[in-house]
Amino acid sequence: MSGMHARLKTRTSAWHARVERAFDLKRVVRDLDHYIWTIRCLRQAHELIRWEAERLDRQTGSGRLAMRLAWMDIDLAALGAASPPPPEMEWSLASSDHLLGALYVLNGSALGGQIILGRVCIGLGLSPRSGARYFRGDGRRTRTIWQAFLDELADIDPLSARGDRVEQGALQTFSLLHQLLSRTVLLRPLAVEAVEPDIPTKKLCRNLASIAG
Ligand code: HEM
């Protein structure tokens, strides 16, 4: 494990535990409304981070963020739920190093996603084609993609000012996710409505579904 990875893992582990509690996997896998609500929260967090990625550094991660957002839209549409409204909250990252910290959190969450996928398929009877595309993510390629991201992180001196900024971005992102997942009122009660995705989303969904096989 590189120094920068070790720093991030250690400094964010308490946040991981908090976010995992707020995520409430036991409830997610037995309550479809809660599952949908969770995807909507995660989508709002991704949306905020994508805005920041586009503002700060279009090259870093915004393509993958768009892909993950599309997967969530596919799931919500498959489950007959609307995508959430744009999050109305002030949240920003100060630099592209902070953005790297945010991407550490999102890329790392794909590891847990592989476990969540199995539980969701058993608990809710979903599959990647019927509401669990987001958690399938990159499937068997998840580890390789994660390792490639860690290789990029390894170039950063964990004791540098840059390392401080990356850590700050990661902490901010865990805190954002915690805040969104801990809400009980803003998105609830969830109206599960049949929505017709707009045309570009539909097209993207079809393309992604054909890639997903
Ligand atoms: C939005 C919620 C979550 C976020 C943002 C998140 C974030 C992360 C991050 C950043 C890592 C990488 C840690 C490292 O540096 O090695 C990680 C790993 C992991 N997460 Fe989560 N996580 C979330 C939810 C969960 C949940 C609900 C579970 C429960 C199944 C979980 C299980 C794991 C596991 C088992 C690993 C380690 C995987 C491995 O190294 O083999 N996570 N997560």
Describe this structure in words.
The chain is mostly helical and 213 residues long. The protein has a single domain, classed as Up-down Bundle (Heme Oxygenase, Chain A). The protein has helices at residues 3-23, 25-28, 32-56, 62-78, 96-124, 133-136, 142-153, 161-182, 199-212. Bound molecules: protoporphyrin IX containing FE. Protoporphyrin IX containing FE binds at residues 5, 8-9, 16, 19-20, 23, 25, 104-105, 108-109, 111-112, 115-116, 177.
Strand content: under 5%
**Rounded average pLDDT:** 87
| Total count of domains | 1
Which architecture does the CATH hierarchy give at level 2? Answer: Up-down Bundle
Q: Separation of termini?
A: 34 Å
Fraction of residues in helices? 55-70%
Determine the structural class based on helices, strands and strand pairing. mainly alpha
Q: Which molecules other than protein and nucleic acid are bound?
A: protoporphyrin IX containing FE
Radius of gyration: 17 Å
Helix count, DSSP H or I runs of 4 or more residues: 9
Unreliable runs, pLDDT <50, ≥5 residues?
Answer: 186-213
Short description:
With 213 residues, this protein is mainly alpha-helical. It is 69% helix and 0% strand.
List the helices and strands and how they pair.
Blueprint: H1 3-23, H2 25-28, H3 32-56, H4 62-78, H5 96-124, H6 133-136, H7 142-153, H8 161-182, H9 199-212
Protoporphyrin IX containing FE binds next to helix 1 and helix 5.
